[in-house]
Automatic annotation (TrEMBL):
Segments forming domain Homogentisate 1,2-dioxygenase C-terminal: 295-446
Name under which the protein is recorded: Homogentisate 1,2-dioxygenase
Ranges that cross the membrane: none
Domain of life: Bacteria
Cofactor(s) needed: Fe cation
Signal peptide: none
Species whose genome carries this gene: Roseibium sediminicola
Domain Homogentisate 1,2-dioxygenase N-terminal, chain residue ranges per copy: 22-293
PANTHER family to which the protein is assigned, alphabetical: HOMOGENTISATE 1,2-DIOXYGENASE
């Protein structure tokens, strides 16, 4: 029996029913939102007594003294302060959700790897039990690096809540629809969209359409931000206005509940007697958001050659070294190819950064086969990779008319740190043992003559 109480809950429910899918536009804006009229103090943060008997509380996403253009915090006005939303902790095990450093003795991370989509099992899996770590990089304790995960979710969390003190999560759905009921409002997320869940934000994940599968980049480091556009100017790539933050929504729900906390790579559970999603009003610039990847405006070459894939960066999480990201989130989507006398697919290369890719839908131009929706690939630090023979021969001999790359959406989590495979990725996930063979049939075309053996 649902133990919802009092009239404020009713007001909250009405608000949710009419406004669950309301969002506020802008990336990193200073938002303000209230689920009950007059709940948000005006012109100040800490009145002696808050309206509705709420508690004022600050959620700091950056150090107090971070430069003002990077400083992020949100003031929450909530039914109970967060000290009531945890109690004593006990450690629990989520054995498939790993954190860096996680270097396994009997796993070889050096290699070009590709996986088929991880299949759904018959098990009921929540956001927590359905998370499977594929790679880890850096060190969660020193807040550098990342982990990549696949989620397989079939079951909503009920009276269960979660927050990660370790990381912000970038969620990239590939299948199914999820609802993230967070302290700061509700976000619904479907394939072709992404969401950012900030470090410390408490939420519950519900399945709207299942089963749900997708990718998660767990960022241990500095927050994701929009990349500088340099000479491109003020427009294109990801535009600020297309990011959406939720409006305030609260639950006044008395029920035995569990809060799970990820902290320094370990999971802890605590029991409380109510929903912690009790923020009635908030203002600030530290908030979850979502973004529709179909709004990403790609930039490319319009005469010959093509730029580095960094031209497709949607979000970047900086490291301490300028231009060298802890993580870049890069999108390869539909676009026109018009370059003359140019090998148009991604070129062969070795990269100091480590590239983990996932396919959201369609066909990727450098690998016409084998890299399928839901699948992943890993090209680790300084490991060569590039088009397979089919892509190379096709692109080398193509009649170079303007051509639209259609029905394609893949992404890359690219990090400055080497990525280590988990045991799950190496032994349980559907690894394609023959991926390395995709370059086998590339021929030597050099015979000492300027024309090579192209036509022989
Ligand atoms: Fe690459």
């Amino acid at each position: 029996m649902d133990q919802r109480t009092d009239s404020s809950q009713k007001l909250g429910e009405e608000r949710r029913n009419s406004a669950a899918l309301e969002y506020m536009p802008g990336f990193g804006n200073d938002f303000e939102t209230e689920a009950l009229p007059g709940a948000l103090p005006q012109g100040r943060n800490s009145p002696q007594k808050c309206a509705y008997g709420l508690y004022g509380e600050q959620l700091s996403g950056t150090a107090f003294t971070a430069p003002s253009h990077q400083n992020e915090r949100t003031w929450c006005y909530r039914i109970r302060p967060s000290v009531k939303h945890t109690s004593r902790f006990r450690k629990i095990d989520l054995p498939l959700w790993k954190s860096a450093p996680n270097v396994c003795d009997d796993v070889v991370s050096l290699g070009q790897y590709r996986w088929d989509p991880v299949p759904h099992s018959g098990d009921e899996l929540t956001w927590l039990t359905g998370m499977r770590t594929m790679t880890t990089a850096g060190d969660v304790n020193t807040q550098v690096g990342m982990a990549s995960h696949i989620y397989l979710v079939t079951k909503s969390m009920e009276d269960e809540y979660f927050f990660s003190a370790d990381s912000e999560l970038l969620v990239v759905p590939q299948e199914g629809v999820l609802r993230f009921c967070t302290e700061l409002g509700v976000i619904e997320l479907e394939p072709k969209e992404i969401a950012i869940l900030p470090r410390g934000l408490v939420y519950r994940v519900e399945v709207i359409e299942g089963p749900a599968r997708g990718f998660v980049c767990e960022n241990y480091g500095q927050k994701f931000e929009l990349p500088g556009r340099g000479p491109i100017g003020a427009n294109c790539m990801a535009n600020r206005r297309d990011f959406k933050a939720p409006v305030a929504h609260f639950e006044d729900r008395e029920a035995p509940s569990t809060v799970t906390v990820k902290w320094c790579g370990q999971f802890h559970e605590t029991k409380i007697g109510h929903s912690p999603l009790d923020v009635v009003a908030w203002h600030g610039n530290y908030a979850p958001c979502k973004y529709d990847l179909r709004n990403y405006c790609p930039i490319g070459s319009i005469l010959f050659d093509h730029p580095d894939p960094s031209i497709f960066t949607v979000l970047t999480a900086p490291s301490g070294v300028p231009g060298t990201a802890n993580i870049d989130f890069v999108l390869f989507r539909e676009r026109w190819m018009v370059m003359e006398d140019t090998f148009r697919p991604p070129w062969y290369h070795k990269n100091i950064m480590s590239e983990l890719m996932g396919n959201i839908y369609g066909q990727y131009d450098a690998k016409p086969q084998g890299f399928i929706p839901g699948g992943m690939s890993l090209h680790n630090m300084m490991l060569p990779h590039g088009p397979d023979n089919t892509a190379f021969e096709g692109a080398s001999n193509a009649d170079l008319k303007p051509e639209k790359l259609d029905n394609t959406m893949s992404f890359m989590f690219e990090t400055r740190f080497p990525q280590h495979l988990t045991e799950f990725a190496a032994k349980d996930a559907p690894l394609q043992d023959d991926y390395i063979d995709c370059w086998d049939s590339l021929e030597k075309k050099f015979d000492g003559t300027p024309e090579g053996t192209w036509n022989k």
